[in-house]
Design a protein that fits this description.
The structure is a single chain. By secondary structure, the chain is of the alpha/beta class. 46% of the residues lie in helices and 20% in strands. It has a domain at 8-36 and 98-202: Rossmann fold (3-Layer(aba) Sandwich). The chain has eight helices and nine strands. The strands form two sheets. It has a five-stranded parallel beta sheet with strand order 2-7-1-8-9, with helices on both faces. The radius of gyration is 18 Å and the shape is globular. The model has no long low-confidence stretch (mean pLDDT 94). Bound molecules: guanosine-5'-monophosphate. Guanosine-5'-monophosphate (5GP) is lined by residues 15, 38, 42, 73, 75, 77, 82-84, 102-104, 106-107.
């Protein structure tokens, strides 16, 4: 178990659910919340920026980081590898900054094992048909990648019982408000506010 001061938010969703739209808006709007930038061996998609969306590396560089124990967790999905950098996140959390991890279910469960008080959020598509429509209409992936992602969606959805919050992304605004509420509520949890409350108490 890894001790930490900031909140860890883990968000998972089948590819195409709208997770990136929601998380980037959340991080932009909420002070004290930062996005964990993963490392991947996947090719950058058009418009993706190195060091903003991902750190794009080759297999050798990924292997080296694995060997050095540089990942908090890592997985292989859709024929590519993805990993959450360890030191940077732990440094932020130690400073009391909240960190948001956008990772798939297998990695999410590994993080939960190490950080049992991580706040686990699962974003659901309104329906299987709508997910397929969104995946195709975004036009970012090959047909093969779309098939892989749809097959993996079912596998990911089966993990919903391990999450604390389930949010359906049907109406974007509503989903966003729910997501923001989860973050705000987590910040007022007793375990996070205990020191403040004790300091206040000592003033009386
Ligand atoms: P994409 O290729 O669409 O950017 O991401 C594919 C999947 O990998 C998404 O479900 C995303 O959340 C997940 N992912 C991205 N980075 C990481 C990571 O560092 N660890 C894990 N376990 N999953 C990740």
């Amino acid at each position: 178990m890894i001790p930490h001061t900031g909140n860890v938010f883990v968000i998972s969703a089948p590819s195409g659910t709208g997770k990136s739209t929601l998380t980037s808006r959340l991080v932009k709007n909420m002070e004290g919340l930062i996005f964990s930038i993963s490392t991947t061996t996947r090719q950058a998609r058009e418009g993706e920026v190195e060091g903003k969306d991902y750190f794009f590396v080759d297999h050798d560089a990924f292997d080296r980081t694995v060997a050095e124990g540089g990942f908090l967790e890592w997985v292989e999905v859709y024929g590519n590898r993805y990993g959450t950098g360890r030191d940077w996140i732990l440094g932020m959390l130690a400073k009391g900054v909240d960190v948001l991890l956008d990772i798939e279910t297998q990695g999410a469960l590994n993080v939960q094992e190490r950080m049992p008080d991580a706040i686990m959020i699962f974003l659901l598509p309104p329906s299987a048909k709508e997910l397929e429509r969104r995946l195709r209409s975004r036009g970012k992936d090959s047909e093969e990648q779309i098939e892989l992602r749809l097959n993996y969606a079912r596998h990911e959805l089966e993990h919903f019982p391990q999450y604390d919050h389930l949010i359906v992304n049907d109406d974007l605004e509503e989903a966003y408000r729910q997501l923001e509420s989860v973050v705000l509520a987590a910040r007022s949890r007793r375990c996070r506010m205990e020191a403040t409350a004790r300091r206040l108490l000592s003033e009386f």
